[in-house]
Every structure is written in C-alpha cells, then in structure tokens.
Design brief:
Elements lengths: L3 E6 L3 H14 L3 E4 L5 H11 L6 E4 L2 H4 L8 H13 L4 E5 L12 H21 L3 E5 L5 H13 L6 E5 H7 L4 H13 L4 E5 L12 H7 L13 H11 L4 E4 L6 H13 L1
Parallel strand pairs: 1-2, 1-8, 2-3, 3-4, 4-5, 5-6, 6-7, 7-8
Helix pairs in contact: 1-2, 4-5, 5-6
Amino acid sequence: MASFGYKVIDSSRAELEPIVASALALGSPVEVGLYTGDGDAFAFLEGALRGSGLPVVVHLDHRRLSLFGLGQREAALREQLGQAVRLGARYVITHCSPYPMTVRRERQAEVLTHLLGGLKVAVAACADHALGLHIENTYHDIPFYRSLFQAAASAGLDEVGFCFDIGHAKVWSTHTLAEWMALLRDIDQDGRRIHFHLHANGGFQDDHLSFLTADHLGLSAADAFTAPGDYYQALAQIAEAFPSSLAVFEVPASEAIENRTHVLGRIAA
C-alpha cells in the first residue's frame, strides 16, 4: 500500500530525517507543510525529495494563503509555489479560509463569490508553475463543498481537486463517513483528483492523534461517524475505493513511522 505516506513540517531537520528516510526506503508519498520557513529543514527536504521519484505534495501555509482574500497575497503565494517546485511537488493543498465563515443562508452566494475569486488566482498561479491544486475540507459540511465544486465547474475550474481530511469531517461535520464517501465518489466521477489526510480524534476537537494513541484511548472502535465499521475498516475502505489517491498520516512526528506500520498491519489483518 504505497499510497499511504507521511505528512511532515518544515520545522526541524532532526525530526524530519528518520521520516524521510523511511519514505525513501518504502517509496511512500510525502506531504510537506510549508508552515515555519526553517531554512535548514527546507534545504534538507529539497536535497532529499527533489528527483527522488517519490510522490511529493506541498501544503501551503493556509493561515496566510487560503482562498479567502488570496488576491491580496499573490506574491506570497507564488513564492511558496516556487518552493513547491523546488521540492518536486505534484500539487499543492490549501484551505478555503483560516477561520470559519458565516453559515447564514443569505450570505452563501457572497461567500462563494469571495472563494471563487481566490480560487481563480490560485489556479492561474499553479498553472504557471505546472502544479495542481487541492482544496481541503475544514469548517464546513457536505452541502457547502458540493456548492463550491459546482461553482468551480461553472467557472471552468475543472482541474481543482479535493483533499479530504477525515478528522476535520468528524469534528466539524454533521454527516457520517459513509455520506462523505458518497461525496468523494461524486467528485472522483467528475474527474477531480482526491487526496487524503488521516488521523484520529475524540470528536470534540482536531487532536491529530495517531492511531496508536487512538487505540490506547479507545477511539479506534466504531462510532457514530465511522459506523458500522471501525477506523481501520474505514481506512481499508478508502484504500480500496480510491487506489490511485495519495493518503498521508497527519500525526505527531515521534509516532509517524510506527503509526504507518501499525495501520497497514491492522488493515492487512
């Protein structure tokens, strides 16, 4: 299951080295979050990943470079896209907004207009760098993302993909994983690429727990979100339904390697 990989942050070379070494040995994907601007960490990642043949993805600094208001930060966007190219990335990921937006029905058309403006800026800049773009689910539910991708299609932005974060869906959604999977199948049938962020939480906040820790806390069993299966059945279902998609574990670096081994072992069993 080479599609299961690691999410790393450009923060500490010492923390990065064993994870990247594991990815290189396994041929697994690596997603790099460009969040801190640590030069030594970035130089290591560039040297290790560029030309490695690994599937590399970059997560933009969504606190500054989300879609909302992106037109005012195009220079910073292009700077990070240049860094993504230096890492050998296939595509980049960002959020709709750094904070929740209004859920009032009378404002939704206005919200979509703002987001489409940023999306057009992002798509054009990504095209100039030969990079794809994925939008990650955060504070909104399924109808919102259906509306967003319908608006993108109407605007001719057919190349935009979706990053499904399973932990975000559990915390900030009222829908089940089965209902999210239906959305993902529709997005896939529309020809859009899908990327996955995998981690666990207790349903109260975005904890980004490893599945090792989730086991210890009793959070891997079937619940209202994953039912009728448990988390491992859910991950197996994702792997089976979307075999060409990349899926990365967004978990603490200290547990990253053991977590991947543990999850793949449980899925195989």
